Every structure is written in C-alpha cells, then in structure tokens.
C-alpha cells in the first residue's frame, strides 16, 4: 500500500513538472502559427531609436530574424542575412533583426556589442534588442537564427513562413533550397509558398532565469 502511494505521488510530481513546461510559452516555443496576425512591437535599435513595424509605411512585408552576436550558426548566416536585405528591402520586404538573448547570460550579446558587430559587418538593417524578452515568446522563436516572414495585409501582418534561411548552415555555396528567398519570391508573385515551415537550426535562445 505504501509503495502504491509513493508511486502515485511520484507520478503526480512528474505530471506537474511536465505541465509546467508544456504551459510555458518560452519553454516550448509555442507562438505564432502560419496565418496568425503578428502584433506590432517597439524595440530599441542600435542607433538608439525605437523601431516598430508600423514605421515601414511602404513595406509589403518583413523578414524578421531572431539572431545574435555569439551563436556560431547566427554568425555563419550574417552575410546571407545582409544579402537578403539588399535583395528584398527594395522590393518591399526589409530585414528586421532582433537580438533575443538575456545579456546577463550572454554579455557579448549586450547593446554595445550589438552596435560594434553591426558596424563591423556593415548591417544594412535595424538590429533591435528584445531587452525584456517580451517579443520572441510571442513569435515562438527558439533558435538563433529563427526566421519569420510577415505579409502586410488589411488585417495586419500575417505570418507566412517560419523556420530556417536555407538548407545548409555550414556552406552558403552548397545550399540547394533557399527557403526565405523561395517564400518571398512567391509572395511577390502572388503565389502559394511551397515550404511554409522548416526546422530552424541554431543555438537555443538564452532566457532570463526569472522568466
């Protein structure tokens, strides 16, 4: 009888722990799904100004990338992200980069370090800091980099693509499928996106312990 009670208690504890994780937006990466309307935000850019999606009056949509200075995957993709902005910003789909990590855990992702990195690489796009970690959980971002393509409509900014930039983080020259380019090209042509969701490959977002 005592063994049965102990077993029941043990199972109950496990269920409670699992429940805590599955109901946590940050822990599970739950967030926007394809077709969802993304809320606007106001985040600080490296130039000190606050940036919102609503600032882009002429945009047709956005390439939102959650990225950082310290993740090797994010670093490998920097040149490709710059290339995406140069190609698609003139067509109405600018890149907006957001740094989601807790800087107490990753000091080298701090604001001053972000400014320095953007200068070194010649970022052509805003590099925003999600200081209070309120934006990335809404998106459901879990990695750096993690891409969300939004299309501006009368209803709001609709999520059209979620996932990776392409299918080879190691070597840009070995890429076979450019998921982001494929998706934006489809939107510009008024066509259906072939791959609407792919698996983001990168470092886990570092969440503050109080979250």
Gist?
This protein has 6 helices and 10 strands, in the order ααββββαβαβαβββαβ.
What is this structure's SSE topology?
Blueprint: H1 2-22, H2 25-28, E1 37-38, E2 43-45, E3 50-51, E4 61-66, H3 72-88, E5 95-99, H4 111-121, E6 127-129, H5 136-139, E7 143-144, E8 146-153, E9 156-163, H6 179-189, E10 203-204
Task: Give the SSE order as H and E letters.
Answer: HHEEEEHEHEHEEEHE
Measured distance between first and last alpha carbons: 40 Å
Q: Per CATH, which architecture of the largest domain?
A: 3-Layer(aba) Sandwich
Tell me how many strands there are: 10
Strand % is: 15-25%
* Derived structural class: alpha+beta
Helix percentage range: 25-40%
Shape: globular
CATH topology of the largest domain: Glutaredoxin
What is the average per-residue confidence, as pLDDT, rounded to a whole number? 89
The CATH superfamily name of the largest domain is Glutaredoxin
Low-pLDDT stretches are 1-28
Strand order of the largest sheet: 1-9-8-4-5-6-2-3
Instruction: Give the class-level CATH name of the largest domain.
Output: Alpha Beta
Number of helices: 6
Q: How many structural domains can be distinguished in the coordinates?
A: 2
Largest beta-sheet characterization = 8 strands, mixed
* Rg, nearest Å: 19 Å
């Amino acid at each position: 009888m005592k063994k049965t009670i102990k077993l029941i208690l043990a199972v109950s504890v496990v269920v409670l722990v699992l429940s805590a994780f599955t109901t946590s937006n940050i822990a599970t990466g739950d967030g926007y799904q394809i077709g969802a309307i993304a809320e606007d935000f106001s985040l600080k850019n490296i130039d000190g100004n606050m940036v919102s999606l609503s600032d882009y009056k002429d945009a047709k949509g956005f390439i939102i990338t959650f990225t950082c200075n310290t993740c090797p995957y994010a670093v490998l993709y920097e040149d490709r992200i710059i290339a995406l902005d140069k190609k698609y910003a003139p067509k109405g789909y600018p890149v907006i980069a957001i740094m989601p990590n807790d800087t107490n855990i990753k000091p080298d992702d701090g604001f001053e370090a972000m400014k320095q990195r953007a200068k070194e690489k010649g970022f052509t796009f805003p590099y925003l800091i999600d200081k209070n970690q309120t934006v990335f959980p809404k998106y459901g971002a879990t990695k750096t980099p993690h891409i969300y393509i939004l299309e501006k409509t009368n209803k709001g900014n609709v999520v059209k693509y979620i996932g990776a930039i392409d299918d080879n983080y190691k070597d840009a020259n070995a890429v076979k499928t450019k998921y982001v380019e494929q998706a934006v090209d489809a939107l510009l042509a008024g066509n259906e996106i072939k791959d609407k969701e792919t698996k983001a490959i990168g470092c886990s977002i570092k969440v503050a312990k109080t979250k």
